[in-house]
């Protein structure tokens, strides 16, 4: 494993953010066609945001590669890096929250990947079992700290995610992380591996977009439209999923649904973050 391996992992993560941004169409999300349901975000802003995170992605991976202490200590180190990464992102975007959720997840995924590869004397490409082992490391890294966060919420200064937890018991991306990202392990990565055998990357990730919107708990949708709007999006995308659309039909459906979500001011930001994480692992496994 070379001294520059952390740079390779960071490049894969940054490439994943840029691919997710470029994937078009994506209902309600910024892509090459439009700004989705966002008034304060556009394509160039997401590029700036992605590039602002690159050096911190290197730091996450390096932290994992070099770590010799407890996994809890690795989380503390990654969280410290993450605070600086978020500050850099907000400087680049002039205060717009473009990648806060993605930064959180890549802090965990990159540090866990570095730690796994170093301690198991492995390199890229990953096997599917390696990706699963990396994700299964994450609860040991973060679960106790995240549970403590939930128990000590500052009710005077609530984030969107904290409001959802207090009002509906939804733990969002922090709950996913504390459980080892079951959406990745059990839903997205198996679907992508199978889809990429017969489809282009864009076709596979368009199918993945629909799959995620039909299944995941999406705090962005809930924040903008409430529980009812989120459940309606799930119902509509599950119906489309059941139709087994061709690649051309799916692109048309996603484009039409983009107009629908823009009119309703709904944006499935949780889906976007999972698409980027899925692309990272597909690159790391050598399937892209």
From TrEMBL:
Which Gene3D superfamilies does this entry report, sorted A to Z? Triphosphoribosyl-dephospho-CoA protein (1.10.4200.10)
Pfam families membership: CitG (PF01874)
Q: Which UniProt keywords apply?
A: ATP-binding, Nucleotide-binding, Transferase
Residues annotated as coiled-coil are none
Q: What class of enzyme is it?
A: transferase
**EC number of the protein:** 2.4.2.52
Residue intervals passing through the bilayer: none
- Signal peptide residue numbers: none
Q: Name one GO molecular function term.
A: triphosphoribosyl-dephospho-CoA synthase activity
What name does the UniProt record give this protein?
Probable 2-(5''-triphosphoribosyl)-3'-dephosphocoenzyme-A synthase
């Amino acid at each position: 494993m070379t001294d520059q391996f952390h740079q390779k992992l960071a490049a894969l993560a940054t490439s994943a953010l840029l691919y997710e941004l470029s994937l078009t169409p994506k209902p309600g999300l910024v892509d090459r066609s439009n700004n989705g349901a966002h008034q304060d975000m556009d394509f160039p802003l997401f590029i700036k945001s992605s590039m602002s995170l690159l050096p911190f992605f290197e730091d996450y991976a390096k932290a994992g590669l070099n770590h010799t202490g407890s996994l809890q200590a690795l989380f503390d180190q990654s969280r410290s890096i993450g605070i600086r990464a978020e500050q850099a992102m907000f400087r680049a975007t002039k205060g717009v929250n473009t990648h806060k959720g993605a930064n959180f997840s890549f802090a965990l995924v990159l540090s866990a990947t570095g730690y796994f590869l170093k301690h198991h004397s492995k390199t890229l490409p990953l096997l599917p079992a390696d990706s699963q082992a990396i994700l299964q490391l994450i609860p040991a890294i973060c679960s106790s700290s995240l549970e403590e966060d939930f128990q000590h919420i500052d009710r005077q200064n609530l984030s969107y995610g904290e409001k959802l937890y207090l009002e509906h018991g939804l733990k969002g991306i922090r709950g996913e992380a504390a459980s080892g990202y079951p959406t990745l392990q059990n839903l997205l990565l198996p679907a992508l591996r199978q889809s990429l055998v017969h489809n282009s990357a864009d076709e596979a990730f368009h199918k993945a977009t629909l799959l995620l919107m039909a299944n995941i708990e999406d705090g962005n949708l809930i924040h903008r439209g409430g529980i009812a709007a989120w459940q309606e999006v799930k119902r509509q995308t599950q119906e489309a999923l059941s139709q087994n659309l061709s690649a051309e039909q799916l692109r048309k459906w996603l484009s039409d649904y983009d107009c629908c979500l823009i009119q309703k001011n709904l944006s499935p930001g949780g889906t976007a973050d999972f698409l980027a994480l899925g692309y990272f692992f597909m690159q790391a496994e050598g399937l892209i």
